[in-house]
Specification:
Structural class: mainly alpha
Strand content: 5-15%
Number of strands: 5
Number of helices: 6
Shape: elongated
Number of domains: 2
Length: about 190
């Protein structure tokens, strides 16, 4: 029996070492060398201060800043540990009430804006952490931000255009803008 047990233990120990130690260190090392920015969490800095990640949405509530998509994470908004969608369907009464509340908040923040509110400003993404909004959602907010920052709407729209990300190869994805990058552009302006 020992003659059969010994090879099994050696194979188990060897595979454990290979898969549990060597492989993770190799993948981590290659990741840090080839994709250092991504391997470090795609952190965004303003001077020497880390202000966020380009991959995780943040809650901005000041009317001077662009607001991202609502977050469905718990116990607080944009909690990367609690990444999940709300799982509420479009006809769920709780979802309808949440959307109505968000619409009312947007209208209260900018009562003169009569444009249609883009859907991504009132619905959470599947992960609850989406760092990007549509170009239309950014442009919807431009009049409020221009008024609050004493800028022209044209200046704000130029910032949106510069921060816009186009579909990959012109086909994959939608035109969008990273909210953190856009707000940092406002700070630098």
């Amino acid at each position: 029996m020992f003659s059969q047990l010994r090879p099994a233990v050696v194979v188990f120990a060897g595979l454990s070492l290979l898969v549990g130690v060597v492989y993770p260190f190799a993948v981590t090392g290659i990741g840090k060398l080839a994709f250092s920015q991504q391997a470090e969490g795609s952190l965004v800095k303003l001077g020497d201060k880390t202000v966020g990640s380009s991959l995780i949405g943040q809650s901005f509530s000041s009317p001077q800043y662009f607001w991202g998509r609502p977050s469905a994470t718990a116990p607080m908004p944009n909690n990367a540990v609690g990444s999940s969608g709300s799982n509420l369907g479009p006809v769920n009464p709780a979802q309808i009430d949440a959307v109505k509340t968000r619409i009312a908040s947007l209208q209260a923040a900018d009562p003169g804006n009569t444009a249609n509110i883009p859907v991504d400003l009132v619905t959470a993404s599947a992960s609850g952490l989406d760092p990007e909004i549509s170009i239309a959602a950014a442009q919807y907010q431009a009049p409020r931000i221009a008024r609050e920052r004493k800028m022209s709407v044209e200046q704000v729209n130029q910032l949106i255009e510069r921060a816009a990300q186009r579909p990959v190869f012109g086909v994959f994805g939608e035109p969008r803008v990273n909210v953190l990058a856009l707000n940092l552009a406002l700070i630098r302006h």
